[in-house]
Amino acid sequence: MKTLPIPDSKRRWDCLSLGEVMLRLDPGEGRIHTARQFQVWEGGGEYNVARGLRRCFGLRTTIATALADNPVGRLVEDFILQGGVDPSLIRWVPYDGVGRSVRNGLNFTERGFGVRAAVGCSDRGHTAISQVKSGDFDWESIFGPGNGSRWLHTGGIFAALSASTAEVAVEAMDAARKYSTPISYDLNYRDSLWKSIGGKTKAQEVNRELVRKVDVLLGNEEDFSAMLGIAIRGVGEDFAELPIAGYEEMLREVATAYPNLRLVASTLRTAQSASRNAWGAIALYEDKIVHVPQREIDIFDRVGGGDSFASGLIYGLLAGKGIEWAVKCGVAHGALAMTTPGDTSMATLAEVERIMKGGSARIAR
């Protein structure tokens, strides 16, 4: 595996994410099917990475997405603005009045507690971003002189939205490659997105082609199996035990199958309950394994933990901190993100660094 070159900071953005931003409706401690009120957030697998890099790590980020131009879309935009993410690459699509042709995605999410697992119920058919096609974004201008990004992040959720979104991902990756922009891709397998369009067979067909254009590949054991057909050995269906030797073998198998990859990383999660997880990570970089052992953490809202791992890892790489620091940063940031509600991180860099050093939860005042 070759070293990953990092562009200098002269480009307009430090990271550009490509994906959907949905409105998340959260029933708090209750259930979706009995709720009488919801708290509202924004979220999306690819977007969460850009927001984490901006709000926690202070980098310049943007999101390439599309929204229906109605009050719901403008509410999502308002959240994006509050998060400090540059909205200039949002494509605004005229709204037809009822959402027959275009709409904005909704994501109802239960946090879970104890023996009751977290639950997600998406309502995202016919969304504006799912209908983007080749040519809708001027990638040459976006990645070329006058603009440019030090990093491109996208993933398997965006690629699953429609046949055309996978084509747009290819178009973006090709332009990024032309301008020596590193590309990260989070496999992020979601059965609900693939089951009506060919299931795991289609997921593997699409993702095997996309991964050939990627520098940094992220996921967990289920993602690698479902999206690439590369399974980890020595684990049960409940993933109660995570053999590190099996993970190392899996990462090396992925790197052999896709020699373009510079870094492959997997989060390590064992769920004793919805409220208590063991959390860590393992990565393969320059043919060497970096392992951050699992530690027990308490969970308030697990959604977005993997995205915050990704943003912490990317920050470490962009900041030139070295691979071990970057993986530890990802684990710490992901752990902190799961202590607050919503998809996105509310952590600060100082908090992340304190966790990386083994800091306790003693009150700070």
TrEMBL record:
The Swiss-Prot or TrEMBL record describes its family as follows: Belongs to the carbohydrate kinase PfkB family.
Instruction: Name any one GO molecular function.
Output: kinase activity
Q: Which residues form a coiled coil?
A: none
Q: What is this protein called?
A: PfkB domain protein
Do the record's keywords include Transmembrane helix?
no
Which PANTHER family does the record match to this protein? Answer: 2-DEHYDRO-3-DEOXYGLUCONOKINASE_2-DEHYDRO-3-DEOXYGALACTONOKINASE, SUGAR KINASE
Cross-referenced SUPFAM superfamilies: Ribokinase-like
- Look up keyword Kinase and say if it applies: yes
Q: Where is the Carbohydrate kinase PfkB domain?
A: 153-345
What are the protein's UniProt keywords? Kinase, Transferase
User: Which InterPro entries does the UniProt entry name for this protein?
Assistant: Carb_kinase_PfkB-like, PfkB_dom, Ribokinase-like
Q: Which domain of life is it from?
A: Bacteria
Species the sequence originates in? Candidatus Sulfuritelmatomonas gaucii
